[in-house]
Amino acid sequence: MPGDPAKIFAGSQATDTAIAAIRAQFGFDKPLGVQYLDYLAGLARGDLGTSVRTGHGVLDDLTGRFPATIELILAALIVALAIGVPLGVAAGASARRGVERFARGVSTLGVSIPEFWLGLLLIVVFYSSLDIAPAPVGRLDIGVPAPDGVTGLITVDALLAGDLEVLGNAAGHLLLPALALGLPAAAPIIRLSAEATASLLRSDHLFYTRAIGTPPHVVYLKHVLRNIAPIVTTMTALIFGFLVGGAVVVEEVFAWPGVGLYAIDSLHYNDYAAVQGFVLLAAAVYILLFLAVDLVNTYLDPRKRLT
Amino acid sequence: MMDSRSALLEMRDVSVTVRGAGGEVPVLREVALDVGRGELVGVVGETGAGKSFTARAVLGLLPHGARRISGSVVFDGTELDTPRAYANLRGTRMGFVPQNPRLSLDPVFTVGSQLVAVIRRGRRMSRTHARKRGVALLTGLGVHEPERVMRSYAHQLSGGLCQRVCIAIALANDPELVIADEPTTGLDVTVQRQILDLLRSQLVRDGRGGLLITHDLGVIATWCDRVAVMYAGRVVAIGPVADVLREGHPYAHGLKGIAVALEQGVEPVAIPGTVPTPGDRIEGCAFAPRCAVATDLCRADDPAPRPYGDQLVRCHHPVADAQLPAVGHPTRSEEVEV
């Protein structure tokens, strides 16, 4: 990040004294080592510093925008899982070449298409041409009030409040970015669940399950899904990390007011504290997520439980 | 013995191929065997002889890439030729005991839930009721603390205990036929004896039939009424256990020699040569290259099954015990390799 944040903050007309004052205000005049120690000390108190762009505390900025990103990522995950798991299981179970090729094609397409391009394509088709999607700006139409709620996820809050109008509006805004982010993420899930299903069907216990008369739909809906669940859960966590990165791009395309858009805008502004805050937040989410996966897998796979 | 009127299960010239690198490879070749009511029929053979494929062909669950190209499986007078014919057969009228019970029970469900699922497939009843019946079944099979076993996962139980659970699952709906594929592999000798005694007593009672697949002739000799000897995908001899082991097919005789030697604690002399692997080109009798009494006829012509005493053997020169050279069983001390 080359450039001087104080100069950008002060604007092109600023005098040298004004810039120096800003440097002193944010501590940019101190040696780098001292700045770093100051940052760490702040971090210990839960202070992520101040954004030179917004003038607010970075922590406040992030917490205000975080629910939007989480909503987007969760919706994308639902899209990815809803497409990836059934298609993957079908591909892994099918003796027919066609199903396997179709799944392979979809997943190859998925890994090759960048999210921003898919996002633009969706906007061109569903907003510009067909005009069935809302304008790709933000989470709600202008004038629609955001519901009060604890989660900060507008769709969930609207559902909890029983406000179907807001729910529909929010879901409409969420759909395209969730597809843009989720469809590419379905690719690795298809691959993985296909492989897991195929190897499961070769296993002793799946043969036995069928040999003792378990009907085919129970074999797949109960035994196969339950057996591949730990693998899919672990994969979901990996994909979550991948989605945090993808969300930065998708939020930019859809003007989605989340932490990704905040990080990009901060980057353009040489806003060190804000960018660092975003990176820290992503890392923290990642760590918490893997902890959660370990806990969930302990529940899903009895062999991992301590006796 | 071979009376088809009373036959519960009849395999008629079943041939199965597996899709391999070089095309379709035969793994079962015109397998014919039958199981009557109240009898336990053993299937014995070396690894690769087609024992497990035989079990899978009866169950209608051939592995991916394998298919039945000819022949028929008739169960209680009904031909099992479509997946539909198997509906409501497995787990209810046809029980199955697996080779490796600890790996066969689904690891992510308790063994009790798997037992309950099978019981409820047989007859409509509440979960609680089915659970009670499961506990009763396990108790009847000599399982201590059946309640605790029901709540356990397969990896928490010993192999012998898992096998009792599998037997309970196999017998849960009073099946007419039980297929057991190497049910005691990996279990120690005492547990093996208990499991096989249990299986036999459960089968012969009530006139059920059983198909016991094993590579252990000792098991066949102790627990089976009749035996089918398999070699290179064929049933080469079938008949009453004592007859088959005494005389007839030279291969069965060779196996017996090895079994007797092992029992006496002497080093057995292996039958010379190796088992053909599926896909090998077989001309004439598959056993001819390893057979002490083979002739040019054997090498040129694959023998059709023919009666020999109470047996059916696929051999041009079925021979009486006395005529056979001592293959497998060492009679002179210098033959014993140390």
TrEMBL record, chain A:
Which CDD domains has this protein been placed in?
A: TM_PBP2 (cd06261)
Q: Does the keyword Disulfide bond apply?
A: no
Molecular-function GO term, any one = dipeptide transmembrane transporter activity
A Pfam family reported for this protein in Swiss-Prot or TrEMBL: BPD_transp_1
Please name the InterPro entries in this protein's record.
BPD_transp_1_N, MetI-like, MetI-like_sf
Q: Where does it localize?
A: Cell membrane
Gene Ontology CC terms: plasma membrane
Membrane protein topology class: Multi-pass membrane protein
Q: What is this protein called?
A: ABC transporter permease
Q: Which family does it belong to?
A: Belongs to the binding-protein-dependent transport system permease family.
Query: Keyword set for this entry?
Result: Cell membrane, Membrane, Transmembrane, Transmembrane helix, Transport
Residues forming the ABC transmembrane type-1 domain are 66-297
Family annotation (Gene3D superfamilies): MetI-like
Give the transmembrane region(s): 72-93, 105-127, 174-194, 228-250, 278-300
Chief subcellular site? membrane
Tell me yes or no: is Transmembrane among this UniProt entry's keywords.
yes
